[in-house]
């Protein structure tokens, strides 16, 4: 079996990390061949080459790049794969599917977001795919509600590397190191958030909740990791609110496995979320989580078991949940242990790889039957 994987993202987080996990395991299967087509200069290229997987870098300009399907078609015509697996948007979902259709190759799409699309567009676009793999049941429900046939949509949850993301062997040392690195008081309660600075992640909701949280827990400090188009505006709002001593924006970090175990909890007040890789990473590090009840988040955060859920935008409830967890170290420990158990049970890399391989087998069987 030969599979061409197409990932158009530029940065190595979220969905791109899932592609690395998948290719790492698939490359070990004797007799199979996998290769990655990615954006020229993308961070994923080096990570995948290190696995021994062949990489083809192309200019992939996104939805408006009208030359993209022809460049992808040229690769497919030369490589003659059995399957094409599309892993991202940014034009890969549409142009990659068209290229696969032109080449006569079965194609599947990994859908990682829960944002709705217009039904007429869905009716046209999703005819291009032989199968759609959603990373959460929440995303699957969105597609079914928009009219995509149930037989075409299968859920294979994203995975987390529980060997890399795990509780610290020396928890006091991890806490002390984090506080020293970010110049925080030794006795600070530290809340983290790891998300792109885009509207649907809920940064503004969090800032609105901070006055109540600080009134109850003046020792609390916040580290908002990530980058994005709203970062400068959020930074300005933090200063305007007089929160510069309370909230830091350290930018994007690729060493969260080292930082997360030093936090007290993770907050993620998102209004939309396909699943949330950062939530999986935090749960694997035994952190309790406070998050919006959106998309696939409830599949990771079980309300009252390993964290709390609230209606997106509900500032008073978000504040109350943060205050409750910050005030109770024992509750944080119980929630954290439960979260670790959930990811070990339901979000393993082995299960994610097996689920995708199962879909590959179904499509190849259908292709053989048609012939």
TrEMBL record:
Cell wall biogenesis/degradation found in the keyword field: no
Superkingdom, natural source: Bacteria
GO MF, one annotated term: hexosyltransferase activity
Keyword Transferase: yes
Domain Glycosyl transferase family: 177-340
Any matching Pfam family: Glycos_transf_1
Keyword terms: Transferase
Glycosyltransferase subfamily 4-like N-terminal domain mapped to chain residues: 15-164
Protein name: Glycosyltransferase involved in cell wall biosynthesis
Originating organism: Plasticicumulans acidivorans
